[in-house]
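Box 3.1 A note on notation
Throughout this textbook, protein chains are presented in two layers. The first layer is the amino acid sequence; the second is a token string describing backbone geometry. Keep the layers aligned when reading.
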Amino acid sequence: MATITASVYTSHVPAIGAALDLGKTTEAYWQPVFKGYEFSKQWLKDNTPDVIFLVYNDHATAFSLDFIPTFAIGTAESFTPADEGWGPRPVPQVIGHPEFAAHIAQSVIQQDFDLTIVNKMDVDHGLTVPLSLMCGQPQAWPCPVIPFAVNVVQYPIPSGNRCFQLGRAIRNAVQSFDRDIKVQIWGTGGMSHQLQGPRAGLINKDFDNQFLDYLEKNPTTAAQISHINYVRDAGSEGIELVMWLIARGAMDDVAGGNPASVAHRFYHVPASNTAVGHLILEN
């Protein structure tokens, strides 16, 4: 059967992608950010999966405010980097895994989670920046990727607990696939930040590091954080952290297995006007 070997958590700040694309990674401002991913790039080379299931949010590129699915799974053979207003990022096309994606959709829907099936869509920085942070600038991404988009842009959005339980359903779906493949599940977005209003620029280091602590050792507590607490403590865009809970809910220990092992943890402020958090957990 297919198995989830690890989960990866990372911010997906668009300015990070721009810094990488424009050759600014060695500048004094950006160097600490990219240094925090040096271990991760080597780790991924040493632990390349057969498929990455990547949880992210679309930023009004594939989905406009006219149509916003709560959970959407990409089932296409490939996904093109989106033009977000200044041209597509110069990164490889994302190759999908239609058979595996369709299987996950079938299984998760039968476990009573409604998914939107997307057979064609472009993918924006929410998906490509995490790939760039973990892979650098390759000619091709190291394996197929299944994009899984979550609405954290327009309320109502799913609760942290619903995302956590969805992760458990995704784990069941992966394990029922009849091929012996290794899967990583990535949760992206966050950490604390707010992009508008009187609190624009808000960063809460204490909240962020406590959240990372919860992910490591007590994810059920993280799953109970309410929407209002995310907004109050982590800023309006800090709500993106619910997507990390999908990845965390898919780990073995949540289903009674052995504790997850921390391979790497990194936190840095600032990158643009955002806190950058990163964690790798292994089953």
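The chain has a mean pLDDT of 97. The longest helix spans residues 160-175.
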